Amino acid sequence: MKLRHSAAMLFGALLVCGSAVATPVGAGSFNLSGTVMGTTTGLNFYLTTLGDQKGVVVNPAIGAFAGLVAASQQTVQNLTVANGVLPGSAFNFQNWVQLSDNINLNATQIAINTSIPVCSGTAFDNPANALGCRPNATSPVVLLQKGDQAGNPNGVSASLIINGFAHFAGDSDLTPFIGTLNGADSDFTTVSSLVSYYNTNGGVPAIGYQASFTTVTAVPEPMTMAFLGLGLLGIGVCRRTRSDRRA
To answer: What total of structural domains would you count in the chain?
Structure first.
């Protein structure tokens, strides 16, 4: 009987400890900057040399990411078709961003906002147009015409939203994040000139970007809660049986 009681307590303790090992990242935010080159096959990130797949931290970094040091280099892998990344569909690119504070980001979705029209002709070269447009029907990138103080076109801004999950390295407890990448291209005066170059060459010259990432506190998964409940139940059975024996 004593052996059965000990086994029940051990089972409960293991379950409780197992659920405690998985730790959610929790709420926080941080920013990265670097260079990105967009092509028809995806996005290539680098800092100084194409292929280095690096970015640097830009303050502020708060909450769960408060340990990140400004200007420190971080790993930002390329988001390409070769890596299984397909905008508009679900994917699971593990450890897309790898941070020095032991937190990694898995990218799982690049949404295509179909409410944003596709760029056509020179219709979106007006800086007063606040809606923007997409280079083509399958692109998640939104282009917006920039202008000088007189309202003349003088460059193009690009933005992109990436969703996924943050987790501690080696941990399966996931915290959702949303990332927004913004960049400005002064190589092209107008949206139409950029789109024309992109369609002709299958990509555009590299531009500087800043990416903002924000996590939200995750609700424990049902399976985690079920294991926790079983663990507490196991401990409860032991305690109740011991009480019965004392009586």
So the answer is: 2
pTM confidence score: 0.79
Among 205, 161, 198, 196, which residue's Cα sits nearest to residue 180? 161
Residue with tokens 């659920």: 19
Rounded-to-integer distance, Cα 205 and Cα 36, Å: 9
What pLDDT sits at residue 177? Answer: 98
| Nearest partner of 141 among 38, 70, 6, judged by Cα | 38
Q: Are 70 and 55 in contact (CB under 8 A)?
A: no
Distance of CA 194 to the CA centre of its chain: 27
Q: Could you list the residue range(s) of the whole structural domain that residue 42 is in?
A: 25-219
| C-alpha closest to that of 172 among 18, 16, 17 | 18
Indicate the average pLDDT of the chain. 85
The alpha carbon of 120 is separated from its chain's Cα centroid by a whole number of angstroms, namely: 30
DSSP reduced 3-state for 4: helix
* CA atoms of 30 and 70, how far apart (whole Å): 10
CA-based end-to-end distance of the chain: 16
| Residues 55 and 152 placed together within one structural domain of the fold | yes
